[in-house]
Each structure stands twice: as C-alpha cells, then as structure tokens.
From TrEMBL:
SMART domains assigned: DALR_1 (SM00836)
Record's protein name: DALR anticodon binding domain-containing protein
Classification via InterPro entries: DALR_anticod-bd, DALRD3, tRNAsynth_Ia_anticodon-bd
Gene3D superfamilies, alphabetized: Isoleucyl-tRNA Synthetase, Domain 1
GO molecular function, one term: arginine-tRNA ligase activity
DALR anticodon binding domain residues: 120-215
GO biological process, one term: tRNA C3-cytosine methylation
Length: 215
C-alpha cells in the first residue's frame, strides 16, 4: 500500500497502475480515502485499476465525461449543477464503486453508481434541510428544552432512531479499526438514506406544524 503511495508521488508519467487489495485484509478508512484520491485526482493516464474486485478502465477525466453523458441521458444538464455539487457527486460515485461489496464490478457508463450517488446526495440534502430548520427554530432562539422521545409517534421515526442513529457511533468507530471492513460504513449509509427517503415522503416534517422531538 505505501509503496503504491510512493509510486504515485514519484512516477508521475506511469501509464498503468494496478492496485490490488485482498478482500481478507482491511485498512483504515483514512488510508483508503487517501488512496482513492491519489488514484483518481493525480494527473495520470490510468489504464487499469483493480481495488479489491473493482476494475476501472477509465481515467478520472473520462469518468467525469461519462458521468456528464449519463446526466444528459436523464435530461439533466451538468452545467446546471454547481461545481461543488458535481464534484461531490463524482466523489460519491467513485467511493461507492471502490468500497462496494459486490463480487465483480466494472466502472463504466453502464454501472449504476450515478443513481446511487444521486440518491444519497439528494437525501443528505433533505437531512440538511431538517437540521437547518431545527437550528433556526430552536438553537438560534436559545431554546434548550429537553428532547421528548414520546413525541416520536411514527414507526418510521423509531426506525431511524433505533436502526440507524443508534448504530452511528459504533459504525464510525468500527470503520476506523484496522480489523473492520469498509463495507459496513457503505451498507449503513445506503440503509440510512433509504429509511430517510421513506420517512421524508410519509412524514412531512418540514411542513407539518406538529413537533417531532420537542414540545
């Protein structure tokens, strides 16, 4: 792993990079993220990358172009998306492809990570809207009332609390453990945003007058 870091740092003209990470081994999340950034954001002509069972036959620029084409296929003009949001969408797609638990994946225009990345980012936007409203109506006004869990009356609210939020600390702690697998964090994120999406559609938390956590 560290030899690969040095190779990427020194040999900037190399044409082919093969990075193989055994499924039976685990590395710290910080190291994996650093590797991912190096592989895709250095100015290299990448012909082949193999990380675990993930194979990429595109350079970073080619990946960006194919992502733009995918958006156009869905009648979305990439120029209408801010540069920061577009880069976040790309990074999320790459992260999902590198940390996937599927047995064999080829990163190409036909793969589904754009849809998954869009779904995750979309629901992160929903969560941010909820948190922003909470900060605006309670925190900014100096309201410090105790949280009342009895106000959580919808089954989906308890699903989020018990199945997702209560796991968050242990999942994050495990993801930084050398004996843990990255897939735990990815699976947690996918399940969490799925539950957030279902909850957001059924419980109009931003428009209903009723309180959901404070009286």
């Amino acid at each position: 792993m560290w030899n690969l870091y040095e190779l990427l740092r020194v040999e900037t003209n190399c044409q082919t990079i093969v990075a193989i990470v055994s499924e039976s081994l685990s590395y710290r999340l910080r190291q994996s993220f650093r590797l991912m950034c190096l592989l895709y954001k250095l100015n290299l002509d990448l012909k082949l990358i193999s990380v675990s069972n993930v194979i990429c036959e595109q350079s970073y620029d080619q990946y960006v172009r194919s992502l733009s084409e995918r958006l156009m296929d869905q009648n979305v003009d990439s120029s209408d998306i801010s540069a920061d949001n577009f880069e976040t969408l790309i990074d999320t797609s790459i992260a999902l492809s590198l940390l996937t638990t599927r047995p064999s994946i080829v990163i190409a225009r036909v793969e589904p990570y754009l849809n998954e990345a869009t779904f995750i980012q979309y629901n992160c936007g929903r969560l941010k809207a909820i948190i922003d409203r909470y900060d605006r109506e309670y925190v900014a006004n100096g309201v410090d009332a105790a949280r009342d869990l009895s106000l959580l009356t919808h089954d989906l609210e308890w699903t989020l609390v018990l199945h997702n939020l209560s796991k968050y600390r242990s999942i994050i702690a495990a993801s930084d453990d050398i004996n843990a697998t990255f897939s735990q964090l990815v699976l947690f994120l996918k399940e969490f945003v799925r539950d957030v999406s279902v909850y957001y559609k059924k419980v109009k938390i931003l428009t209903e007058p009723s309180a959901h956590l404070r009286g």
